[in-house]
């Protein structure tokens, strides 16, 4: 008679036995294959191999060795279980409360290895030997692996042998969703040629391939997807369109040009610049938060709402002022200048000391902010505030800007004034204040 504790451990042991796969050496695996090849069916579970000889042949792309190992009668649907890698704590299934450090085991197959490494001849041999093209023991298919590693010839070969271009991996992503590198363009072309869904959404995030291309600033992918009819304004789980995704992605200075090009392509194709995400943030909010001057100029040109507030009560001006201190290389003063010229709310005078604290590393930002007022306060002490008079020229500018507020960018260029005066009216940087 079993007590509850005995039954628990018995069930745990049975569970471990069900999970255990037949681990065989290369020799035993060949013998097993010869003895059971006549009984194998398509639905039979693949066998697990830890033989280093087999793994070395696959990982080095040794065509001759692969052909010798995977000869007639030898199963091509092996599951490779590499040894080593990162270690983590794992609970012992037999003894409650006992933990041990074990290596993480990532299951893969000969197809995954050769496709990911770009060993086309090895991959072709395995496919000719009948390897199951959509086998995914580790949660991802060989086609995903080839796309992630930018191996277009392997992608084409897998598709020609029946790989599903819309199969999902363990993260709910289709192969097009993992084309995230510039060099994966040819992979994306092959996928679309074989019927990949251009508007297929990932299961977890509802991202489309267009979201992915926008987020990773892939202009050539973007052009390809738009030619194939990608939907511009589909929203993902967070409410982001492809344009929102592009604007919300932080980037370094080296990537700014690519991101700007992607946003220009989306807006020119008809992307809605007013769609907001779950936090009611528009593309302009996000472009200001990440300090992308060219994209801010683009959105303002297409009549983005300059004073729209998100759920946190922040307008685009608030977002850029918060980012000035750590986005100096992105020329944040250009964004502040553009927002003011398009009618943005100004900083409340009582908050100027706090703004000065955050923007002190950007003198030009302070210059353009103060030049938007007819007078400003300077704090000499906690108890003494004086109003400093401005020059007559500045007061005239302020009066004209107030009269034309929200229309400056349309009216000023049409005035018969010298260029330097037009620039002055548009708060051009002069590195001093009147």
Automatic annotation (TrEMBL):
Keyword list (alphabetical) reads: ANK repeat, Repeat
GO cellular component assignments: nucleus
Q: Which InterPro entries match?
A: Ankyrin-SOCS_Box (IPR050663), Ankyrin_rpt (IPR002110), Ankyrin_rpt-contain_sf (IPR036770), SOCS_box (IPR001496), SOCS_box-like_dom_sf (IPR036036)
Q: Which residues cross the membrane?
A: none
Query: SOCS box domain: from which residue to which, for each copy?
Result: 389-425
| Pathway(s) | Protein modification; protein ubiquitination
Q: Which GO terms describe its molecular function?
A: transcription cis-regulatory region binding
Q: Which domain of life is it from?
A: Eukaryota
Which one Pfam family would you cite for this protein? Ank
Gene3D superfamilies hit by this protein: Ankyrin repeat-containing domain
What SUPFAM superfamilies does this protein's entry cite? Ankyrin repeat, SOCS box-like
Could you mention a single GO BP entry for this protein? intracellular signal transduction
Q: Which residues form a coiled coil?
A: none
- Give me the ANK repeat coordinates as residue ranges: 106-138, 138-170, 171-203, 205-237, 279-311
Any idea what this protein is called? Ankyrin repeat and SOCS box protein 10-like
**Organism encoding this protein:** Sinocyclocheilus anshuiensis
This protein's gene is called: LOC107690991
């Amino acid at each position: 008679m079993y007590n509850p504790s005995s039954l628990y451990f018995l069930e745990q042991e049975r569970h471990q036995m069900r999970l255990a796969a037949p681990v065989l050496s290369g020799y035993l695996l060949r013998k097993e294959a010869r003895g059971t090849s006549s009984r194998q069916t398509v639905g039979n579970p693949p066998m697990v191999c830890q033989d280093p000889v087999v793994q070395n042949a696959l990982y080095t792309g040794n065509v001759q060795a692969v052909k010798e190992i995977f000869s007639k009668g030898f199963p091509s649907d092996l599951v490779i279980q590499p040894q080593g890698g990162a270690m983590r704590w794992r609970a012992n299934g037999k003894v409650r409360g006992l933990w041990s450090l074990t290596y993480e085991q990532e299951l893969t197959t000969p197809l995954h290895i050769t496709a990911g490494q770009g060993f086309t001849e090895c991959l072709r041999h395995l496919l000719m030997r009948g390897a199951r093209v959509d086998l995914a023991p580790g949660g991802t298919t060989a086609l995903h692996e080839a796309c992630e590693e930018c191996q277009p010839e392997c992608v084409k070969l897998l598709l020609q042998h029946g790989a599903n271009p819309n199969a999902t991996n363990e993260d709910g992503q289709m192969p097009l969703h993992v084309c995230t590198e510039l060099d994966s363009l040819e992979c994306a072309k092959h996928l679309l040629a074989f019927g990949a869904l251009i508007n297929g959404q990932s299961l977890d995030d509802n991202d489309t391939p267009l979201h992915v291309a926008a987020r990773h600033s892939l202009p050539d992918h973007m052009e390809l997807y738009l030619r194939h009819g990608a939907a511009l304004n589909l929203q993902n789980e967070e409410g982001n369109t492809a344009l929102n995704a592009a604007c919300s992605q932080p980037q370094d200075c080296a990537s700014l040009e690519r991101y700007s090009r992607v946003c220009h392509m989306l807006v020119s194709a008809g992307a809605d610049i007013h769609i907001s995400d779950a936090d009611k943030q528009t593309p302009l909010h996000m472009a200001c938060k990440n300090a992308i001057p060219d994209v801010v100029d683009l959105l303002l040109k297409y009549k983005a709402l300059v004073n729209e507030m998100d759920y946190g009560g922040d307008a685009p001006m608030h977002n850029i002022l918060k980012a000035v201190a750590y986005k100096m290389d992105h020329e944040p003063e250009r964004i502040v200048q553009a927002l003011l010229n398009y009618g943005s709310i100004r900083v409340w005078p009582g908050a100027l000391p706090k703004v000065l604290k955050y923007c002190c590393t950007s003198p030009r930002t302070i210059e353009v902010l103060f030049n938007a007022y007819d007078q400003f306060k300077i704090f000499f002490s906690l108890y003494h505030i004086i109003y400093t008079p401005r020059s007559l020229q500045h007061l005239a500018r302020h009066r004209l800007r107030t009269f034309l507020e929200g229309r400056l960018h349309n009216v000023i260029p049409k005035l018969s004034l010298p260029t330097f005066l037009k620039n002055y009216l548009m708060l051009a940087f002069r590195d001093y204040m009147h």
